[in-house]
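Typical record was shown:
=====
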Amino acid sequence: MKSTFALLTMAGLSLGTSALAQTRDTMSIGVSIEPPGLDPTRSPSEAIGTITYNNVYEGLTWLDRDGHVQPLLARDWTVSDEGRVYHFTLQENVHFHDGTPLTCDNVRFSLLRAGATSSTNPDRTFFTNIADVSCPNATHADITLRKAHGSFTYELAWNDASILSPSSADKNASHPIGTGPFFFQDWQRGDHVTLSRNSEYWGKAPALKTVTFRFMPDPLAASNALLAGELDAYPSFPAPEILGRFAGNPNIKVVRGTFPFKAILALNNARRPFNDLRVRQALAYAIDRKALIQAGADGDGTVLQSHMAPNDPDYTALPDRYPYNPERARELLKEAGIKPGTQLTLSYPPITYARDTSEIVAAYLEQVGLIVTLQPLEWPSWLGRVFGQGSFDMTVIAHTEPHDIGIYDRDNIYFHYKNPQFHELFEQYEASDNAEDRHRLSVALQDRLAQDEPNVFLYSRPRDTVLNRHISGLWIDQQIAACPMADVTWQP
């Protein structure tokens, strides 16, 4: 593109930005985190989904930008009266990037693999409810559940339910192969992942020839790259406090959207002193979450009372059970036998919001007599030690999965929360397919968590996307960690 521009300039011709937009077929996207691998069925990192969801991998269903379930590799489906058997009709003439045809056998392999005892799928509990996948023929898959699950097709739309080919599944972490509109081209560690257009894609062919996801954790460096035109867009820009740098630039726009961002101070409920409700409540009282939003999220955000973001259809604005009250925090700590000077460790991954929030939270906890050691971790260490092994005291992390309150009912969840009342409510919620009943039960689940405070629910925040003004089709609102590029184009 630079050489074309130079030749036209030497010829005495002018090429405006609109004409440049019409001729471009590549795009560079900034992301804050480099994924630990590129297989969403093995790791919970949202960075994987940002690059691969509906770009490289596809599932039977998908979630659109508004969070609605849409058919994808499954053309349509029916459900038995008791809600336990799903009959899926698959798309025809679909091939994986290595040429392997999509058949029911791939569906069976992928879903049973995800629920196997040896599986490291982050949502393995969901897949263990699948009793069997039978294949009447190549284009039909019958999935039988152990018990009815009202949100089954919704969770099939998550990235960790991607349909894989047995011939490539073991290599997907470094060389992903799916059925999507883009295939994997290269991964330069520490710098970028590049995807190329799949010219034999079974659906509508993407307009872009290549898409490069550049790893840019430093917001200032990212803003400089955007201003210089070296970066075309940055969804979920991580530093709202410097968005003013783009003001007045005619080639860049900043657009605000929503996403299911839920920042929490996660607590290890299996470890003393966090197994004591009074301690968890004390930590909640000790933190001024409104001030935290002002300082750590540049004033943009909503105080959370439970594990659900405001853009979720079932979100309910619960009463504030734990308003800022350091005196009450000290009283509860004393009641629980926690002496002043008790030492705790607060771990956090290498993300701007996690670092800033952790520093502020530590300062608040020290004001009520606790000594907090900050422990920054690289992503592989955080995923392995904290999320994988559950070996930590406290950690700041944002969950960005859609409608994921069910993680509090998992046996293997890293913060080790267990509550029979929550479990019973969640069983009722999952078994129901009545919208009114599900909403009522969802509110009850949110309230149960607010009472138990297994984690300190901190804040949600909006999603700011910085992009070239000629880009069209990029997701602004988001219900799942993803950046689908098939419909993204350059416009005059």
Summary: The radius of gyration is 24 Å. The chain has a mean pLDDT of 93.
